């Protein structure tokens, strides 16, 4: 009986296991489908993010060859620096906020005679131009900075000047920046 009973037990176990395996396989496939959908959604979000960074990089006032080689952190850093400089140089609105110079589509920075003279300032000064915020962040540098200190303009923009100073000199810069900010008549700008 034992040899005859053994084969009977195997078929009785198989039908009971088959229904329990089917839901497990269905759970696995649903889980895999969710993972696949999640992966696709993340890929789509990354693609949209990359497009936004691409557009932002090409909106910056940089040569196209430079803008195409920026990483995301550099794009954000340079955009913040550009916005700070623009805020610093923006004229105070007299009538309405939308009437400031440069807002009309026909105005371009290259058309201004002042901007054509700006390229000669670094040559006349024999150095480079550096604009700092009150916190010591570099918000503007002339392009010729690399000729003087060996670090490119793009690497420095948006960085804190304290990162490049000797610790002994940091306190002196802090004193200069705080003394200057005490005499700043326009507290809204917050830049030197």
Automatic annotation (TrEMBL):
Spell out the SUPFAM superfamilies in the cross-references.
HLH, helix-loop-helix DNA-binding domain, PYP-like sensor domain (PAS domain)
Q: Where in this protein does the record put region Disordered?
A: 1-44, 91-117
According to the entry, every stretch annotated as the PAS domain falls at: 129-186
Q: Where is the composition biased (Basic and acidic residues)?
A: 1-11, 24-44
Main localization, broad class: nucleus
- Composition-biased stretches, type Acidic residues, lie in 108-117
State a GO cellular component annotated for this protein. Answer: nucleus
Where it sits in the cell: the answer is:
Nucleus
Q: Which CDD domains match?
A: PAS
* Record key words, sorted: Nucleus, Repeat, Transcription, Transcription regulation
**GO terms under biological process:** cellular response to hypoxia
Note whether Transcription occurs among the keywords. yes
Q: What protein name is recorded for this chain?
A: Uncharacterized protein
Recorded source organism is Knipowitschia caucasica
